[in-house]
């Protein structure tokens, strides 16, 4: 875990915001309420798009906080519109920008006991590798999949974002 991880979180949150921007344009072009997408889900027993965005944001902010011995800002999970979800992404990104300079020197041996865990803890390295990174990408991928399934015209490059190829 280092500033490059934070930069990757920021890039993917920018891409996530881009997916929601394309969703708004899609709905506008078809003259229906974009906010209907916030409740979309892939299957009846899966979380809706709104919760997928919230969890992706929370995973990024809590990861940098846990692994730098900081306290993450508290955000209520009360977003119900695409505009509110985009604001949530922005608030998370603003926090992550401050985390670029956090000290992650001892992240591997940090003790991480997330509130959602029933008991026990993980080392920082275990949390980072086994929970944080897979969970972050899973929830962003679920947003992508929900939107594709709902007919929003997005593609792989919308997920990946800009690539910095060198000549």
Order of helices and strands: HHHEEHH
- CATH structural class: Mainly Alpha
CATH architectural arrangement = Up-down Bundle
What class do helices, strands and sheet pairing give?
A: mainly alpha
User: Gyration radius, to the nearest Å?
Assistant: 16 Å
CATH superfamily: dinb family like domain
For the largest beta-sheet, the strand count, sense and barrel status come to:
2 strands, antiparallel
Tell the overall outline.
Answer: globular
Low-confidence stretches: none
CATH fold-level assignment: Four Helix Bundle (Hemerythrin (Met), subunit A)
Number of helices in the DSSP assignment:
5
Strand content: under 5%
**End-to-end distance:** 29 Å
Major beta sheet, strand line-up: 1-2
Provide the helix percentage.
55-70%
Structural notes for this entry:
The protein is mainly alpha-helical and 167 residues long. The protein has a single domain, classed as dinb family like domain (Four Helix Bundle (Hemerythrin (Met), subunit A), Up-down Bundle). It is built from five helices and two strands; from the N terminus they run αααββαα. It has helices at 3-29, 49-66, 82-99, 124-149, 156-160, and strands at residues 111-112, 122-123. A two-stranded antiparallel ribbon has the order 1-2. Helix 2 (49-66) packs parallel to helix 3. The chain is globular and about 50 Å long. It starts with a helix and ends in a 7-residue tail after the last helix. The mean pLDDT is 96.
């Amino acid at each position: 875990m280092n500033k490059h991880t934070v930069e990757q979180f920021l890039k993917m949150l920018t891409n996530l915001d881009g997916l929601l921007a394309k969703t708004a344009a899609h709905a506008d072009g078809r003259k229906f309420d974009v906010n209907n997408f916030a409740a979309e889900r892939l299957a009846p027993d899966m979380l809706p798009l709104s919760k997928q965005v919230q969890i992706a944001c929370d995973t990024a902010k809590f990861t940098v906080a846990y692994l730098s011995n900081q306290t993450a800002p508290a955000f209520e999970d009360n977003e119900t519109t695409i505009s509110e979800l985009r604001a949530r992404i922005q608030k998370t990104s603003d926090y992550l920008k401050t985390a670029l300079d956090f000290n992650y020197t001892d992240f591997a041996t940090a003790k991480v006991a997330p509130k959602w865990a029933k008991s026990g803890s993980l080392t920082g390295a275990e949390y980072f590798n086994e929970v944080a990174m897979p969970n972050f990408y899973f929830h962003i991928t679920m947003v992508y999949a929900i939107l594709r399934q709902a007919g929003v015209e997005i593609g792989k490059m919308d997920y990946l974002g800009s690539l910095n190829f060198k000549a």
